[in-house]
Specification:
Layout (H helix, E strand, L loop, with lengths): L58 H32 L62 E6 L5 E3 H4 L3 E5 L7 E4 L7 E2 L7 E3 L5 E4 L2 E2 L4 E4 L2 E3 L6 E8 L4 E10 L1 E9 L5 E8 L5 E10 L4 E12 L6 E9 L1
Parallel strand pairs: 2-7
Antiparallel strand pairs: 1-15, 3-4, 3-17, 4-8, 5-11, 6-10, 7-9, 10-17, 11-16, 12-15, 12-17, 13-14, 13-16
Keywords: Membrane, Transmembrane, Transmembrane helix
Length: about 325
């Protein structure tokens, strides 16, 4: 069967090649037309003549190709479904679950799934939860405030004054007597280690011998013994007086100071050198006769130091030597 025909302008065949009259055609000869060909002599598409017939098409001619196409599509879909199932069954970890964004290089685990509570079909409202009692936290224990610093202790009181005072029996640590021999004389316990000391004397200063009490001692220096003497010293004028000191420490001690006043008022002040404790007292005599008293000073210091005593004329009631007097002191 020839694959094409030629137009009327075709070149004659060469000699020796059989002509068209000697070959059998597969279908009846039809008049030559130009359908499916170009007149220029170039080869074109060959269209069977029965497809170009002008006649109505049957439904089967449309359904058959459509059925073939649909069957092909279904086969492709089924194959893809079977393949995806096979991949999931063979490698469960092939497709990892999606994770939320990571923080830096550390993956964040997916949030837990919580069931969403659904409202109950009942119309009755759910009972409200009973509020729990709040725990009362006890207040923190407050620490005790620090103890105040030790100020020491000083107490001054007036004591009983006997007619005769035994300085040796009373002053077990030390004792002192003023004016037994002269204005500046001082008699003291020989083994008292000079614990009681007098400060710098002030002017004027006088010896007197009219004390109502008699002072006696033994084991003294520079006077060894005395059966009893009414002597002492005194001063005149406001602001003049005497000062003495004695050892102080944590142990409680007692100092007895024998004083007098004549037409004046005296003030005794006692304070510690190693503590802030202090005390004071006054004694006065407005007449022109000497009156005497004894001050009992009980004291204790936070640490070793001294107690300082001053016996000063606070007020003079006479221009004729009104002031204070000093006779003796004992320490125990």
């Amino acid at each position: 069967m020839p694959d094409d025909d030629r137009t009327t302008g075709r070149q004659p065949e060469s000699e020796g090649r059989p002509s068209d009259a000697g070959r059998r055609r597969p279908y009846p000869a039809t008049p030559r037309t130009s359908y499916g060909y170009r007149t220029t002599g170039r080869r074109g598409a060959v269209v069977p003549p029965h497809l170009l017939e002008d006649r109505p098409r049957r439904l089967s001619e449309f359904l058959m190709p459509a059925a073939v196409i649909l069957a092909g599509v279904l086969i492709v879909v089924a194959f893809g479904f079977i393949l995806s199932r096979a991949v999931r069954d063979d490698d469960p970890q092939a497709i990892p679950p999606a994770q939320p964004p990571a923080l830096g290089n550390l993956p964040v685990s997916p949030a837990d799934q919580f069931p969403i509570p659904l409202p109950s079909a009942s119309d009755e409202p759910s009972p409200s939860p009973t509020p729990s009692k709040a725990r009362t936290t006890p207040p923190p224990a407050t620490s005790k405030p620090p103890a105040p610093p030790d100020r020491g202790s000083v107490k001054v009181a007036r004591g009983d004054l006997p007619g005769r005072v035994d300085l040796s029996a009373e002053g077990t640590r030390d004792w002192v007597h003023w004016g037994q021999q002269s204005t500046f004389s001082l008699e003291r316990r020989e083994d008292g280690d000079f614990q009681i000391l007098e400060g710098a004397p002030t002017a004027p200063r006088f010896r007197h011998g009219f004390s109502p009490q008699l002072f006696s001692w033994s084991g003294g220096s520079p006077v060894a013994t005395s059966d009893g003497t009414p002597t002492g010293i005194r001063t005149c004028g406001k602001g003049n007086g005497f000062s003495i000191s004695a050892p102080a420490g944590p142990a409680t001690r007692t100092l007895r100071l024998y004083v007098g006043a004549l037409a004046g008022r005296g003030k005794l002040t006692a304070k510690l050198t190693t503590g802030s404790a202090a005390a004071s007292a006054t004694f006065e005599e407005r007449g022109n006769n000497l009156d005497t008293a004894v001050f009992v000073i009980t004291y204790r210091a936070p640490k070793n130091g001294k107690i300082s005593l001053s016996w000063i004329t606070e007020e003079a009631f006479s221009q004729d030597c009104g002031g204070v007097a000093l006779e003796a002191a004992t320490l125990r």
